[in-house]
Amino acid sequence: MAEQSFQLYDTTLRDGTQQEGLVLTVEDKLAVARRLDALGVGFIEGGWPGAVPKDTEFFRRARGELDLKNAVLAAFGATRRPGIPVSVDAQVRALLDAETPVVTLVAKSHTGHVQHALRTTLAENLAMIGSTVRHLVHAGRRVFLDAEHYFDGYHVNREYALAVVRTAAEAGAETVVLCDTNGGSLPDEVRAVVADTIAMTGAPIGIHCHDDTGCAVANTMAAVDAGAVHAQGTAHGYGERCGNANLFTVIANLVLKRGREVVPLERLRDLSRTGRAITELTGVRSDPAAPYTGLSAFTHKAGLHASALRVDPDLYQHTDPARVGNRMRTLVSDMGGRSSIELKARELGYDVAAGSEEVARAAARVKELENRGYSFESADASFVLLLREELAGGPGAPPFEVDSWAVGVSRRRDGEVRTEASVRLRVDGESVTATGHGNGPVNALDTALHSALDPYFPALTRLELVDYQVRVLNGQVGSGAAARVLISYRDGEQRWGTVGVDENTVTASWAALLDAVHYVLLDGPAEAHGSPSLAAAATAG
Ligand SMILES: CC(=O)SCCNC(=O)CCNC(=O)[C@H](O)C(C)(C)COP(=O)(O)OP(=O)(O)OC[C@H]1O[C@@H](n2cnc3c(N)ncnc32)[C@H](O)[C@@H]1OP(=O)(O)O
Ligand SMILES: CC(=O)C(=O)O
């Protein structure tokens, strides 16, 4: 059973969208809310109705379209303006009009902010808090109060900061959330201030941290350890400046490290998937090194790590990645040895042993090729071809041969630039020629290759080049190699990559293009060529 008393509060749709470059439509916001609800988050702050038209619309549509199973919606807004009755404050009215079960009010708790930003008296600020909370509670809302700049304010005037908490709690706020608005606090300070605030006020306390010292999650954990019963954060730590506390990390830490089931264990397994889905919706690239959910969170590159992981994954992992829906990955590189090759080969479906000669040869070849500028980390398909060659004791008979290829770029008098490639191949002894056009030499060569080979090998029709990167390596590698080309492909549901290295960028690209074709024809995903995967066959054998 999920712990009932602890309040897990997401503010992705409000504070998260204060991140530079993050813009969500109402449709996106509804979709993010559904994802967070499915994960088991208790509260979802949808935005500031009355201030941001899109947020007003979000709450309007949420009433008819959001069928939340776990979460409760919260509308966010400020206390009434100074010097006016709460009943006439249009912003407060808009909070009620959002018709959410919860309203979260932001209020000043730092004397300097009250006097200089709000330009009112300390007494009036307390009156604004008290009257707004009472007004909303009287209207049937559960009220949380975000005490802005609480930690900085506490250091300037502790008595006033505590008075804000007491005023809100006495007026009926269910939880008073201490905000590290400028994100400048460190965990020991947060722990001490939260403990003192609880001791002095007895109010249920929450925590809202920003990451300007890189401590937002640590500060959140420190607050919970000190007795906070409510934690706020955002998906992937989205937020203004350096972001907010990453709620995914907070959730996993609370469940796995503190034994507090703030979401049920079975939902925790959806954590990584939820993260990926929200990344898709926001379009903001997520950090591969993010704890628990990042692509690299359980990815191992060093040979010594791989050697120990082969025996027991716990030796180099703090938790089982499956608990958060992630998985262990091994990278093949010049930093690996035979164990890395064995683990990677197994990941790709080959049952090989680190002690075998083939694996030793593959490890030596990877080291030698990486010294010449290759990089196999993101070129699984090229690695599979290398591995298969070693397992088979040499290159097998190719499905086709390359006689020649050419590529030319020309500019016409009217300014049009044309890139044309031609390939001459030999398939089953038959000569095949084809030409292709494209927006550059690689695109043109890819088109020509497809044009020549697709009629013979229909599996290739699904192969789609999705990314191309070239890196000039002059002076960085042992030989005179000049360019490394990495190409990523989509093949149905699968994505994989190839690598080519040569002094000539187009020749390096051609090598990477050919690896992709060979991979699909020799070893690619089973559904791509309608026959059992050779990888699977290798495992079985
Ligand atoms: C720490 C946080 O992240 S809190 C969330 C911050 N989020 C946002 O600001 C996003 C949405 N904000 C907005 O759309 C606008 O700022 C609005 C609609 C709220 C206000 O717009 P405007 O009326 O044009 O005022 P403006 O943005 O210039 O200044 C904010 C006003 O709110 C007042 N204010 C600030 N904090 C509070 C508070 N806790 N309670 C009441 N009023 C407050 C300021 O004193 C200022 O008042 P003034 O207009 O009399 O100077
Ligand atoms: C309320 C809020 O977002 C903050 O103080 O940081």
From TrEMBL:
<comment type="similarity">
    <text>Belongs to the alpha-IPM synthase/homocitrate synthase family.</text>
</comment>
<feature type="domain" description="Pyruvate carboxyltransferase">
    <location>
        <begin position="6"/>
        <end position="269"/>
    </location>
</feature>
<keyword id="KW-0412">Isoleucine biosynthesis</keyword>
<keyword id="KW-0808">Transferase</keyword>
<dbReference type="InterPro" id="IPR002034">
    <property type="entry name" value="AIPM/Hcit_synth_CS"/>
</dbReference>
<dbReference type="GO" id="GO:0009098">
    <property type="term" value="P:L-leucine biosynthetic process"/>
</dbReference>
<comment type="pathway">
    <text>Amino-acid biosynthesis; L-isoleucine biosynthesis; 2-oxobutanoate from pyruvate: step 1/3.</text>
</comment>
<dbReference type="InterPro" id="IPR005675">
    <property type="entry name" value="Citramal_synthase"/>
</dbReference>
<dbReference type="GO" id="GO:0043714">
    <property type="term" value="F:(R)-citramalate synthase activity"/>
</dbReference>
<dbReference type="Pfam" id="PF08502">
    <property type="entry name" value="LeuA_dimer"/>
</dbReference>
<protein>
    <recommendedName>
        <fullName>Citramalate synthase</fullName>
        <ecNumber>2.3.3.21</ecNumber>
    </recommendedName>
</protein>
<dbReference type="InterPro" id="IPR013785">
    <property type="entry name" value="Aldolase_TIM"/>
</dbReference>
<keyword id="KW-0100">Branched-chain amino acid biosynthesis</keyword>
<dbReference type="InterPro" id="IPR036230">
    <property type="entry name" value="LeuA_allosteric_dom_sf"/>
</dbReference>
<dbReference type="InterPro" id="IPR000891">
    <property type="entry name" value="PYR_CT"/>
</dbReference>
<dbReference type="GO" id="GO:0009097">
    <property type="term" value="P:isoleucine biosynthetic process"/>
</dbReference>
<dbReference type="Pfam" id="PF00682">
    <property type="entry name" value="HMGL-like"/>
</dbReference>
<dbReference type="InterPro" id="IPR013709">
    <property type="entry name" value="2-isopropylmalate_synth_dimer"/>
</dbReference>
<dbReference type="Pfam" id="PF22617">
    <property type="entry name" value="HCS_D2"/>
</dbReference>
<dbReference type="InterPro" id="IPR054691">
    <property type="entry name" value="LeuA/HCS_post-cat"/>
</dbReference>
<keyword id="KW-0028">Amino-acid biosynthesis</keyword>
<dbReference type="GO" id="GO:0003852">
    <property type="term" value="F:2-isopropylmalate synthase activity"/>
</dbReference>
